[in-house]
Amino acid sequence: MRIYTDEIINAVCLNMAERRGVPPTAVEVQLSWDEQYGYTAEVWVQGRSQYLVEANLLEAIEQYMLKHYQRRVFRSQIKLDFDEDFWADIED
């Protein structure tokens, strides 16, 4: 299974909204990849910025898969990648 940029962003928004006790619409996310840091996201919640590392992104995707697809996946089953778009390949 593969999920793309929009679903990865939704996963991060939902995860951060739950952690911060705000509605998902109050969260903004920008995904990025860098040779030094790998996959990261800059997240804005109520005007405050925070950087998430790949482990945070994988955790958000794990929870998203469970809540929206009723699939229990582990970090070892998720591979992030990008070209012009970001995506996550999720092994069965």
UniProtKB/TrEMBL annotation:
Pfam family, one: DUF2653
InterPro entries per record: Uncharacterised_YxcD
Entry protein name: DUF2653 family protein
